[in-house]
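for ur thesis appendix - Gluconate transporter. copy paste whatever u need, i formatted it the way the template wanted (i think)
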Amino acid sequence: MSHYDIQLLLTALVSVLVLVALIVSRLRVHPLLALLIVSIGVGVATGMAPGDIVKNITDGAGKTLGAVGVVIALGAMLGKILADSGTTEHLANAILRRSSDRMIPWAMTLVAFVIGIPMFFEVGLVVMLPLIFSVARKLESREKFKGSGYVYVGVPVISALAAMHGMVPPHPGPLTAIAVLHTSVGPTMLYGFVAAIPAMVLGGPLYGAFITPRMNVRPDAALLDQFTTATSKPADAPQSAPSTGLGVLSALLPAILMLLHALAEVLLPKDSGLLHIAAFLGNPLIAMLLGVVFAAIFLVDTHGGDPEQLRNALGQSLKPIAGIMLIIAGGGAFQHVLTAAQVGTAIVHMTQQFHLPPLILGWLIAMLLSVSTGSATVGIVGAAGLLAPLVGADPALNVPLLALAIGCGSLFFNYANHAGFWMVKESFGMSMGEATKTITVVQSIVSLVGLVMVLLFDLLPKLG
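the 3d part is after this line
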């Protein structure tokens, strides 16, 4: 490990500390400005040319907005339609009516578990936000409830979505590890499903119950009203209302399309025409777009809705999330600059000096790369590529478990250089400390429990 590697690692560490200081100190710098300032600082400190600094910032911001921003915008539109049609209200009432206060987090975990099977973390969260806010708002109105209902309901959802995202194919992380390590989807998926259950339980309902009385979190009023307040119809408008079943179908349609794509990838040959169709329809952007169009037609137009009022509502739905998307883009810029500075390479050089069992080493390398660069994908690709030679050299190695260990490691300590951190922080109106206590700690719990499950599985006979 060279002196330059040490310098890169120190630069990455200092950059995160400076970022936090800018946001939480008396300066109270807006997160977007702080992210851009620190990104420039990292570029200068690592010797990047000025043009490369600008290019990396714009590439990182653009890539993140392209992958996440448009989907978040479509999710906000879908959430607005569901709220205005009364669907979110009906679902929230159903959960509250059929669940005691203690059982609500478990019910939300189950919903997020199902939603999280095909959906990326950020996509699943934006789809779940209307239901989280509606249930939490009603829960907080109960006299006996203490603490933040938004943490109580939101933490289980974050835990379940994170567990599915990092552990279970067809999410890109596990699939990437499977491809690089040349192992099978089936055993990895089975291991992932089983490992995800205790991980999301400990990181979700149990941790959520512990942290809720200690936090007082409330989302921005505009975002909260958008996702929880139904728009009343004019007195002369038709009063027919969409059925709850149709509303649920509208809410789940993107997830259904993504799930069909996932099943097609497993069951159909790669040259199948049906697979290409499923891949197109199951792309997060296309699936969310179809969900919005379906909801607009069947929840609004066919029930006497005013097209002009719908258009205005969809336009209004984007205003509360505009700031969130830009901050997420700033996080993407920060992550891209760290990656371009070769911080990941320095981590790889450091881990080559370790002498650990492959499963633990895979988890550790993925964790260090993900934490330092802000990219779970970098963590997974780097760890899988580094350990791929072991697959042929060690016949006793359980390769599906190695893929799972790498996926679990990529989840650990989701913090300020991750786009998901900023999405949770800004969506729930949290401070840096509150976001750390939620998404950062939750994903760390999920990651560590996943590693424990991997080591336990390794004591059993191999699958497949």
